[in-house]
Design a protein that fits this description.
- The chain has 519 residues and is of the alpha+beta class.
- Strands 10-14-15-16 form a four-stranded mixed beta sheet. Strands 17-21-22-23 form a four-stranded mixed beta sheet.
- A hairpin with a 4-residue loop joins strand 22 and strand 23.
- The C terminus is likely disordered.
């Protein structure tokens, strides 16, 4: 971090010269050294190496750096190999490489001593796992108990899994579980047989018997093979751990969405775990509705309806390939592809729902969109084509808004003002003031045909009124304004007259014959 801060100060122009003890203290390898020195050189910053007496700005500075840095890198590798050799020799003698930290124990001199309060938690973790509980369930239990980790932090499920796999709790030590694969980058790797491991017995008092530890390891293998089916707390189905994503390799998981209007009804889909947790950018694999999945499986298995038992007995794995293809892998080794198509909309849009939707939207009082409606929305019908009238609003210069109703098609029927319709409704129903509730209760519909407006009442009677289109009211102007406009028109007329005269004069001059030379 301090080295990066120094480079940032160089880029900001705060440093001119860097003094360093030696090449080995400046960079880990030759490539990093040369790249950094060249970058600083471009910035005008000189690096001086005291031990090697090299300046980066000198002509032969980079050549000397390359040679000496290679020597320093090899020296670092040689030292690392010597350290590894010494560490392995200590492992062979049963001596650990330093004092490691482990929950449940503390170091007293060169020996690990049990911390009984923490040891109880370790035993609880092992007992829970053998009793079928997951690491996540134990994590929640420890959180309720107020138990903290070795560093007084939240006891996460990853820490619980590490405890379940640490053989140190049996009173034995296993050395060289990991090893460094690159001396320069210091990257380490879990030792899976690439290098020898050293098992030292009875080095300290055990918290967990070896038999219990081995039983836990066998249970871990069993659960790994079964996947989610091994966890009884998870609501599983025959598809659990069988549907694979071909893009990221993760299993598909079941996801349900409850209907807001009917909470008891759940719409299930199967979706890639990566996509579900991290979004479509991490994995674009397509989700598949459970109904479509079952229909495709029934067709492939040759059953009239989907059967869980038949599917579990024959299908080993299922891949969702592309946007519309399922790849079935049978236990007998055969593979079959099947196209699928979502029928979610068709399955949901039943005759009962269609009728209920129509009835709901049929009446303005029950229509979900009624807040956006005007008083006459859906009530006025065209007497020529039968289309519903639509509302058109406009704002006058004085800021007042007016609404008029016109046919939704271009049949040429007349428009009618909103306020005139309201006055007609009051006249027909005998109301002192317009009331939308009274109108909706009494009127079935209104038809407009030219100037004839017919009001169809719910009792079966019809009332007719004549509609006269109001004359447009022009803006009244003062006499001064009218005189001003007359003078403007005269001035424009005179200007046009003068311009036309000049044009005709120019044309007449061009039309005259030109006489040249002497007679």
């Amino acid at each position: 971090d301090e080295f990066k801060r120094m480079l940032a100060d160089c880029e900001a122009g705060k440093i001119d010269i860097i003094l360093t003890k030696s090449i080995s203290r400046f960079a880990r390898n030759t490539v990093d050294l040369l790249e950094t020195v060249r970058h600083l050189k471009d910035l005008g910053v000189e690096v001086r190496f005291e031990k090697e007496n090299i300046r980066s700005m000198d002509g032969d500075g980079e050549l000397m750096l390359t040679i000496l840095a290679s020597f320093a890198q090899e020296e670092s590798r040689s030292i690392s190999d010597n350290v590894k050799w010494g560490t392995r020799k200590r492992f062979e003698k049963g001596i650990p490489n330093g004092r490691f930290q482990i929950y449940g124990y503390r170091w007293e001199g060169d020996h690990l001593v049990i911390q009984e309060d923490e040891a109880k938690i370790v035993r609880l973790i092992y007992d829970n796992y053998l009793n079928g509980l997951s690491a996540e369930t134990t994590e929640k239990q420890l959180a309720k108990m107020g138990v903290k980790s070795y560093k007084a932090q939240h006891f996460g499920n990853s820490s619980i899994r590490q405890i379940l796999g640490n053989i140190t709790y049996t009173g034995n030590l296993l050395f060289q579980k990991e090893y460094v694969i690159d001396t320069i980058s210091k990257r380490s790797k879990i030792n899976r047989g690439e290098l020898p491991q050293y098992f030292v017995e009875n080095t300290h008092e055990a918290i967990i018997p070896m038999e219990v530890y081995q039983a836990v390891q066998e249970e871990k293998v069993r659960r790994r093979e079964l996947g989610a089916l091994a966890n009884w707390s998870i609501n599983t189905s025959c598809f659990t751990s069988r549907i694979k994503c071909p893009l990221c390799g993760k299993n598909y998981r079941r996801s349900g969405k409850r209907q807001r209007k009917n909470p008891d009804e759940v719409y299930y889909i199967w979706i890639c775990r990566t996509k579900s947790e991290k979004g479509a950018k991490s994995c674009p694999a397509k989700a598949i509705p459970e109904k479509a999945l079952k229909n495709a499986c029934a067709e492939v298995l040759g059953t009239a309806e989907f059967d869980d038992a038949v599917f579990s007995a024959q299908i080993e794995q299922l891949y969702v390939v592309g946007d519309d293809t399922l790849e079935f892998h049978f236990y007998d080794g055969s593979v079959l592809e099947k196209k699928w198509k979502s029928t979610a909309k068709k399955d949901w849009w039943t005759e009962e729902r269609r009728a209920a939707w129509g009835e709901l939207h049929k009446h303005k009082a029950t229509n979900p969109n009624r807040r956006r409606f005007y008083e006459f929305t859906g009530l006025i019908k065209c007497g020529q084509c039968g289309e519903s009238f639509r509302c058109q609003s406009m704002t006058r210069k004085d800021g007042t808004r007016i609404r008029s109703w016109h046919c939704g098609r271009t049949c040429g029927n007349t428009n009618i003002r909103d306020e005139i319709l309201k006055s007609m409704v009051c006249d027909v129903l005998g109301l002192d003031a317009f009331s939308e509730e009274s109108m909706d209760a009494a009127l079935e519909k209104i038809t407009v045909n030219g100037t004839a407006v017919r009001f169809h009442l719910r009792d079966g009677s019809v009332a007719e009124r004549e509609y006269t289109q109001p004359k447009r009211k022009g803006t009244k102007h003062t006499e001064e304004f009218k005189e001003h406009m007359r003078q403007l028109m005269k001035a424009k007329w005179k200007e046009g007259k003068m311009h036309g005269t000049k044009k005709s004069d120019n044309h007449s001059s061009h039309d005259q014959p030109v006489h040249g030379g002497a007679d």
